[in-house]
Amino acid sequence: MNSLESIATGPMWAGFIAFVVLMLVLDLFVFGGNKAHKVSVKEAGIWSLVWVSLALLFNGALWWYLKGTMGAEVADQKALEFLSGYLIEKTLSVDNVFVFLLIFTAFQVPQEYQRRVLIYGVLGAIVMRAVMIMAGAWVVSEFSWVLYVFGAFLLFTGMRMLVAADQQPDVANNPVLRFARRHLRVAEGDHKERFFVLKDGVRYVTPLFLVLILIEVTDLVFAVDSIPAIFAITTDPFIVFTSNLFAILGLRALYFLLVDVADRFHLLKYGLAMVLTFIGVKMLIMPLYHVPVQASLTVVAVLIAASCIASLVIARKDGTTK
Q1: Buried b / exposed e across 35-62, counting CB within 10 Å, b at 16+?
Q2: pLDDT of 13-72, one tens digit each?
């Protein structure tokens, strides 16, 4: 049986986890992530730039360290794997944004409360993704044929997304929401940013807590797609983990950046579906042809850029004909 192969040492793992914890603590207690606050597009843009810059700085530092310890060839390969994985995870996280918007709209959550829900959603997502990535890396290392199962699953998911791209999920009839309402005491009404309230000495959950549950479940569902996708690029647990977490850490800023313009990119779902389909095919043809990481990076970038440009062009044409 194979053991998990990674370029990371114990201190590298510890350093990255410490960095993540530090950023979350700063977000919660210094920048007020746990308080009600309406995020402007300018603020979201600045934070998106910060997170993307941190990811690229990390990749540069990783390349520099590996070049000095393992040589330029390994450094170039791992840096490219991180960049490709980060782009794929960042791209697929856009689909989360659309669903988050539907959930907040369905529950009529004011934008100043959405920020607090998303920071706790990110905390839960980090824990879930860490468990899933480590479990996935172990399974792949022990049973390499699982990669073909991942490929078939991604191909099926991509094709299904292409067919159902225009369909909206029915948030009100979500089975998780129905289960929660049956088994939890829910205090209906407006309770501002609180998740729990006391009534006559009895603790109730608020509708905002139900929103948080749906956000967590949504990320879990999307993780089932995105984590196998990154294993098409690399099976190094450290690269998978770091690229995934950088995408998750920037998800909240990405949401507030896109929330006001989401309708303009109505064809982006087709681009995301084609990305999943391409990755699924790439994994299935591995015994016959190994698609270089550079080629994968290019194809993903072109598909997303083309779907965004097509959305703007078609929307502009529609606007001129009305």
Answers
A1: eebebeeeebeebbeebbeebeebbeeb
A2: 999 999 999 988 887 777 766 666 677 888 888 889 999 999 999 999 999 999 999 999
